Amino acid sequence: HKLCLAQPDLLHTQCLIDGQWVGADSSRTLPVTNPATGEILAEVPALGAAETARAIAAAGRAWTGWRSATARKRAMVLRRWYELILNQSEDLARILTAEQGKPLAEARNEIVYAAGFVEWFAEEARRAYGETIPSPVPDKRLLVIRQPIGVCAAITPWNFPAAMVTRKIAPALAAGCTVVVKPAEQTPLTALALAELAVQANFPPGVVNVVTGEPAAIGDELTANPLVRKLSFTGSTEVGRLLMARCAATVKKVSLELGGNAPFIVFEDADLEAAVEGALLSKYRNTGQTCVCANRFLIQESIYDVFAERLAAKVRTLKVGNGLDEGVVQGPLIDGLALAKVERHIADALDKGARVLAGGERHPLGGWFFQPTVLVEVTPEMLCTREETFGPVAPLLRFGSEEEALAIANATEYGLAAYFYTRDLARAFRIGEALEYGMVGVNTGMLSYEVAPFGGLKQSGIGREGSHHGMDEYLELKYLCLGGM
Ligand code: ADP
């Protein structure tokens, strides 16, 4: 399981500030651990507020040149970065699996997905069109231009160490912004490898900066520094609220992608085979650790037992292990806290009357491995249907009518992704429109693409990433009113 790379210089253990690879002023470091083995892969700098302020200042200086480069020039650099990411995708996937745990096949998919944002926004860079407005008076002309907002901070989570970085910074860079990225402390190596490729792609110094270290120290500077005009965050609702509040002091624009509590509804007219396949994909991808993973399954009464049996039969065959091993489809959880949450949710459900149909316990491999699990006779009082489990647990609830399913599905402060299966076209529209979620999968368990708007309603977030809307988050409208015409 040693990390064998074709290009060993992708494995950086320093931060990128102003085009230079640097350590912490204090020389302090933080370990990066392989969640499958417990082995320490590397030590990365534990930067604090001072180094972060330097990165922000560098991004501020670089902004002048980057914003005035032509859109075509920015597009060409992004395009080069995209090609480098694809060329090095095998190494990137290995680094990703080593620090994050997901199966290598999933890591390869993530690198392609991550590169997709860079390609897409390289294309969008040239389409930041403005508008002209018919004037209400004869001697004036009114027009609107769209300009980059300025220095942007990106704080990213560990569950998609590559894609969350590119989904935020590719549109920022395309728009003409400069960035300071703080990757999750669990998975900084993928972000640093992407930064190395950004250097190779020839982004000017200071346009892309990556800082690793203690989250609060870096986060406090990113949110307080007035040079930072925008913060984009993906992570927990709790931390998102905190960062949003901190950004209020300097009135920064914020984009937030926070937690979810995705319902996965199967109506009795559904194609059951397809629903089971969709459930597997939606629930067990990344060992249940994505913010759009189905968190609760609502199954109509008449098909409940057969759906449960079919899903459990498939779940029992999922191979658990080190993501670098052949055939493994379930890696470890990210850490001990994640494992404890899964155990707490299962214990609470069993205590309140649920039954285990598959899995239910730690995996014999030990460490942070858990058996993929199916729970039946679950009710909306149980923790696993109210909080985001973020693990490989499928809790199955029963419902009678469509109204009941909708009421249960919408009874949450979250509103990120929802899924449902039906063969009735009218119902597909009815439910699709009634679900209070930013993204709805109809007869599919997978809906994330760089060309589509990703984001949530309610307390699941603010703003959209990906698609042509993703650029708007990094552009300001400026209205020019020309008089004396
Ligand atoms: P998770 O529970 O998935 O780890 P978090 O919201 O804790 O989600 O983490 C998401 C990102 O937010 C990570 O990069 C993490 O380091 C960062 N983070 C956590 N706490 C803070 C904080 N107080 N200030 C800034 N960033 C933080």
Automatic annotation (TrEMBL):
<dbReference type="InterPro" id="IPR016161">
    <property type="entry name" value="Ald_DH/histidinol_DH"/>
</dbReference>
<protein>
    <submittedName>
        <fullName>NAD-dependent succinate-semialdehyde dehydrogenase</fullName>
    </submittedName>
</protein>
<dbReference type="InterPro" id="IPR029510">
    <property type="entry name" value="Ald_DH_CS_GLU"/>
</dbReference>
<dbReference type="InterPro" id="IPR010102">
    <property type="entry name" value="Succ_semiAld_DH"/>
</dbReference>
<keyword id="KW-0560">Oxidoreductase</keyword>
<dbReference type="InterPro" id="IPR016160">
    <property type="entry name" value="Ald_DH_CS_CYS"/>
</dbReference>
<comment type="similarity">
    <text>Belongs to the aldehyde dehydrogenase family.</text>
</comment>
<feature type="domain" description="Aldehyde dehydrogenase">
    <location>
        <begin position="21"/>
        <end position="479"/>
    </location>
</feature>
<dbReference type="InterPro" id="IPR015590">
    <property type="entry name" value="Aldehyde_DH_dom"/>
</dbReference>
<dbReference type="InterPro" id="IPR016163">
    <property type="entry name" value="Ald_DH_C"/>
</dbReference>
<dbReference type="InterPro" id="IPR050740">
    <property type="entry name" value="Aldehyde_DH_Superfamily"/>
</dbReference>
<feature type="active site">
    <location>
        <position position="257"/>
    </location>
</feature>
<dbReference type="InterPro" id="IPR016162">
    <property type="entry name" value="Ald_DH_N"/>
</dbReference>
<dbReference type="Pfam" id="PF00171">
    <property type="entry name" value="Aldedh"/>
</dbReference>
